[in-house]
């Protein structure tokens, strides 16, 4: 091999490795993230098993697992998950629909934006939990106040995201629509809607995230069922494993609903020119 | 016939961009408008397109007054402006929304074949090169079969090779249906290669300063002496048009006032 060829080969090989990772690295990379939590969990399990600590306040993974299984076996876990899920779903639906309508009109009309946006921004500055006493006075301690609180939490990210997205639609693409004489309705359907969709999906996902946050707040403040109730129950009866099991359930359901939105939107967002990480 | 009758444009901020441009363009004619930056040539084109209607005067196409985008007028912008969420074929068919699907598909396929991108029909705009994207934009503008095609510095963002390639290609496409072409450019070679007539504009307010007929047979050889001769005439006219001494004191004042906005 000539020197030149060797130099080229030497220069090329690292680049090639980077562009096409081998199967082994592709399997190892995600596993890297598991090393720390799994090691910690194992270590804690071993420490408790060896009797160095009772693990009463911080139960080892095996205890949490069996608590989880027990809760599932009695059907309590499913019932609480379903209750919480339906609260989030109702709050998310109401919050997202209202935010979509308000965000769309304020994004589209300067007059309506000047009229509504300052008040909404002022309301946004209020920490949403601060509404709880008022909501309870107005709507009682049952479902209505909880759902309202979640809806308020969902509203703001969706509203802000959609309004901002509409305002930042590329003027040049709107002009293409004008040059082809699109009607107002066609302009919305063929240019504005697809243009705002990526930002809208992101705002829905962050809205859903807040929805999950607020359902915990709502359930902590008084509920007889739901995953938040499970947290409180675990605290009052001194069952930390139950608390952690509820947290795990929150994580699973929260992630799953977020994934559902991303999955539903994916076919419409394939055109996006984004950096894709492997 | 496209008739511009004393078109003027004054922006709300007081900038007098265009001061009474009159011009008659025959069907099938290719007219290039050339001039220095800020001479109002894009403003003129946008007024004809109906995107930014003139504040004085009027545009007539076949006797009909144009005040808004018109189905007989197609526009090609400096950038391709493809809709990123539509596949190449759907971008080309964008202006055919009201036609039945089979007809649309057929015309899109024919147009894509004509610009040499039949194999790119199912791709996303992001997957195209700059030259390919601009060819898709040309196909999109031509598919509704406009009578007048307006081009606003359509190749200025492309590299020199792609540019000459697309200039020849544009002429080739023009020969199919021979629409009226009105092209704004600051590239003298481009104007001479394409146009039957070159209008040299003077700035502030934009006005037609000189008109140069290009009587060269097509395809035009960029290296020929005749080409060079026309080029020298155009350059000389451009030089004179940019001579600030020729601009009146009043215009100069306005120029100063609008400078920040204008450049």
Quick overview of this protein structure:
The complex is a heterodimer of chains A (278) and B (263). Chain A has eleven helices and no strands. Chain A is an all-alpha fold.
Description:
The complex is a heterodimer of chains A (278) and B (263). By secondary structure, chain A is mainly alpha-helical. Chain A has one domain: MetI-like (MetI-like fold, Orthogonal Bundle). In chain A, 79% of the residues lie in helices and 0% in strands. Chain A contains eleven helices and no strands. In chain A, helix 9 runs parallel beside helix 10 and helix 10 runs antiparallel to helix 11. The two termini of chain A are 35 Å apart. In chain A, 28% of the residues are buried. Residues 1-19 of chain A have low confidence and may be disordered. With 263 residues, chain B is an alpha/beta fold. Chain B has a domain at 2-82 and 145-223 and 239-244: P-loop containing nucleotide triphosphate hydrolases (Rossmann fold), CATH 3.40.50.300. Chain B is 37% helix and 23% strand. Chain B has helices spanning 41-49, 88-92, 101-114, 130-142, 160-177, 188-194, 225-242, 249-262; strands at residues 2-10, 16-25, 30-34, 56-61, 64-66, 73-76, 148-152, 180-185, 197-202, 207-213. In chain B, strand 9 (197-202) and strand 10 (207-213) form a beta hairpin. In chain B, helix 3 (101-114) crosses helix 4 and helix 6 crosses helix 7 (225-242). Chain B is globular and about 50 Å long. Chains A and B meet through helix 8 and helix 9 of A and loops of B.
Write the SSE topology:
The complex is a heterodimer of chains A (278) and B (263).
Chain A: H1 3-19, H2 23-49, H3 61-74, H4 76-108, H5 110-124, H6 132-139, H7 143-167, H8 171-179, H9 184-220, H10 227-236, H11 240-265
Chain B: E1 2-10, E2 16-25, E3 30-34, H1 41-49, E4 56-61, E5 64-66, E6 73-76, H2 88-92, H3 101-114, H4 130-142, E7 148-152, H5 160-177, E8 180-185, H6 188-194, E9 197-202, E10 207-213, H7 225-242, H8 249-262
Helix pairs in contact in B: 3-4, 6-7
């Amino acid at each position: 091999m000539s020197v030149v060829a060797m130099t080229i080969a030497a220069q090329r090989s690292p680049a090639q490795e980077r562009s096409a990772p081998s199967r082994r690295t592709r399997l190892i990379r995600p596993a890297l993230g598991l090393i720390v939590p799994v090691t910690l969990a194992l270590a804690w399990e071993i420490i408790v098993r060896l009797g160095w600590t009772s693990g009463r306040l911080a139960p080892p993974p095996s205890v949490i697992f069996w608590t989880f299984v027990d809760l599932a076996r009695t059907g309590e876990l499913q019932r609480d998950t379903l209750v919480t899920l339906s609260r989030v779903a109702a709050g998310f639906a109401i919050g997202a629909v209202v935010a979509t309508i308000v965000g769309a009109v304020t994004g589209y009309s300067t007059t309506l934006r000047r009229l509504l946006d300052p008040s909404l921004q002022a309301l946004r500055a209020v920490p949403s939990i601060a509404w709880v006493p008022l909501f309870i006075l107005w709507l009682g301690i049952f479902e209505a106040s909880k759902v309202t609180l979640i809806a308020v939490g969902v509203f703001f990210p969706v509203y802000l995201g959609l309004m901002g997205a509409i305002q930042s639609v590329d003027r040049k693409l709107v002009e293409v629509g004008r040059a082809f004489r699109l009607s107002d309705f066609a302009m919305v359907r063929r240019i504005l809607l697809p243009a705002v969709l990526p930002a809208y999906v992101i705002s829905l996902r962050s809205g859903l995230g807040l929805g999950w946050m607020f359902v915990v707040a709502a359930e902590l403040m008084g509920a007889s069922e739901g995953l938040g109730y499970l947290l409180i129950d675990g605290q009052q009866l001194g069952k930390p494993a139950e608390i952690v099991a509820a947290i795990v359930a929150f994580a699973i359901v929260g992630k799953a609903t977020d994934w559902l939105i991303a999955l539903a939107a994916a076919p419409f967002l394939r055109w996006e020119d984004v950096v894709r990480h492997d | 016939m496209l008739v511009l009758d004393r078109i003027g444009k004054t922006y709300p901020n007081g900038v007098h961009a265009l001061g009474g441009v009159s011009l008659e363009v025959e069907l099938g004619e290719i007219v290039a408008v050339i001039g220095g930056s800020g001479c109002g040539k894009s403003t003129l084109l946008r007024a004809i397109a109906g995107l930014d209607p003139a504040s004085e005067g009027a545009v007539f196409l076949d006797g009909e007054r144009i005040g808004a985008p018109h189905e007989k007028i197609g526009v090609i912008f400096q950038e391709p402006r493809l809709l990123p969420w539509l596949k190449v074929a759907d971008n080309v068919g964008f202006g055919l929304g009201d036609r039945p699907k089979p007809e649309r598909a057929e015309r899109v396929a024919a147009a894509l074949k004509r610009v040499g991108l039949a194999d790119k029909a199912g791709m996303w705009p992001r997957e195209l090169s700059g030259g390919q994207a601009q060819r898709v934009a040309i196909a999109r503008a031509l598919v509704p079969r406009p009578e007048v095609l307006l081009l606003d510095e359509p190749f200025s963002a492309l590299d020199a090779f792609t540019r000459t390639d697309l200039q020849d290609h544009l002429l080739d496409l023009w020969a199919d249906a021979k629409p009226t072409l009105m092209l704004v450019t600051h590239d003298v070679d481009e104007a001479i290669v394409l146009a039957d007539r070159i209008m040299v504009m003077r700035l502030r307010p934009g006005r037609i300063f000189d008109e140069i007929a290009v009587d060269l047979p097509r395809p035009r050889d960029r290296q020929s002496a005749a080409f060079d001769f026309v080029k020298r005439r155009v350059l000389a006219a451009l030089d004179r048009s940019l001579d600030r001494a020729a601009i009146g004191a009043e215009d100069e004042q306005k120029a100063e006032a609008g400078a920040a906005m204008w450049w």
